Known about the structure:
352 residues; alpha/beta; Quinone Oxidoreductase, Chain A, domain 1; Rossmann fold; 2 domains; six-stranded parallel β-sheet; 25% helix; globular; disordered N terminus
Amino acid sequence: MQPAHQGHERRAAGGSPSRAVVVERPGVHRLVERDVPVPGPGEALVRVAAAGICMSDREVYDGHRDAAYVTYPVVPGHEWAGTVEAVGEGVDGALVGRKTVAEGFRACGTCERCRCGETSLCEGGYAETGFTEPGAFSDHVTVPARLLHPLHDDADLRAAALLEPAAVIAAAVRMGRPRPGERVAVVGAGTLGLLAVQLLGASSPAELTVIDPRAARGEQALRFGAGEALDPAEAAGLNGRFDLVVETAGAPTTAASSCLLARRGGRVVLTGMFTPGAVGIDPVHLSVSQLEIRSVFGAPSSTWCDAVRAFGLGLLDPAPLITHEFPLERFAEAVALVGGGDPKTGKVLLRP
């Protein structure tokens, strides 16, 4: 990684400064100052309290994200929480002062998929905060007010910054349809996997098993409510056991191994982001076992509602996942930790 070149954009006389991390192109970023954005019609201006860094942000910085899903230069940051500071024309003024999170996908709302409630499958063209639109590695972020999900007044905004991955897991849980008394496995004990443990635990499973090669992550999964934590070699002896398997790791072999863990007629939900070359799912096993397989990319509006509701009820507490917090000025140091392989690194936050 190249060291940051900290510069300042000129701002209008008398304007208040608002800082942002701008990734100009892969490996090159600047910390800039500019006027506080003014929300336009239908928009809300949010003062960012905390923004999480995930592997997709690291991919943006390194230049490894598919070109169809990023536009340079860009202010990253799609996992965040903050407080509404101003609203534009046509937006309820009562939102000002409210703690909030917001959906990342800028769905069109009019295509067939959107009208069916599948906003993460919008056919109107890809647009997402932090990838093609300015994100929350900044003091302020402007978003369409229709995407806001207000929080309780006493909400912990550090923890709320993780509601974006929580909404993805809520989508997986909806697709998986867990029922009380079922045997459930979660493959992977990263951020997504540990959030899955909390949400799946609320369905009263008979067994809740987490599979991860990292012993420390397995121990954390037990603290989050899992009944047992196994490494992949131990889990291979449980093939065919689970009613529901939620895959969160995105490792080269985990899609195929997750299908082997499911019982005949079982359900598998894939949430990990796989890279080319991942091991394929055996079509013979899939056919003979009559598995139901679903995949998740992002979260529709409905599962954002699920995640925010679970957070407000205390069923979901992402705060213990946070291990590091940095100011915007230390973005290069923060992003270097993500995906660096240190098992002690959990969720890394930027705190504007």
